[in-house]
Amino acid sequence: MNKVMIVAELSANHNGSRKIAIDTIRAAKKAGADAVKLQTYTADTITLDSHADDFKIKQGTLWDGKYLHDLYEEAYTPWGWHEELFHVAKEEGLICFSSPFDKTAVDFLESLNNPIYKIASFEITDIPLIEYAAKKMKPIVISTGIAAAEDVQLAVDTCRAVGNDDITLLKCTSSYPAPIEEANLCMIKDLTERYKVKSGLSDHTIGSVSAIVAITQG
Hints:
Helix 6 links the parallel strand 4 and strand 5. Helix 1 (18-30) runs parallel beside helix 4 and helix 6 (127-134) runs parallel beside helix 7. The chain has a domain at 116-218: Aldolase class I (TIM Barrel). By secondary structure, it is of the alpha/beta class. It is built from 9 helices and 7 strands; from the N terminus they run E-H-E-H-H-H-E-H-E-H-E-H-E-H-E-H. It is globular and about 40 Å long.
């Protein structure tokens, strides 16, 4: 069996507090994580400042009624925190890396020696972003939560076309939280066999069952 890497997701779980972000990284270490992942974007680099109906959340979530720009302005991890968060993770013996959402984020992360690039499910069709990150010749991890088979193939082919074959695909169900009956963890092995890459799980379910079962899938 391949070595398992457990990655703790910081994302917006700091609730706007740098102290909570730091404390969360240290708690991730105590909980047994191997790495911690950030998300690198600003409201302006991830969406439009629009109050059109298409930009209003209305999908039965806790964020219903908010506009996307307002939500991301509230939730993002300030870029000015990143250097300290990377440093804290290193002190704790954790790998720290991030998901960029545009090319400026990749450039910024390169200045911090970001060791791995994670492409979020909703960016799997952003081929220019995948190509730009893959050209840095660092491991690329791609979630597949909203992807059709041809989207996954194109993302993998894009990495390989620039000479980067260090690719991991993550089985992901893009629901928050994801119903455990929709986990479909047999896809973990299928991703490896079909695309000749490493594979794993990006878990949005509640509890630990999916993560434990994912380990049995390699």
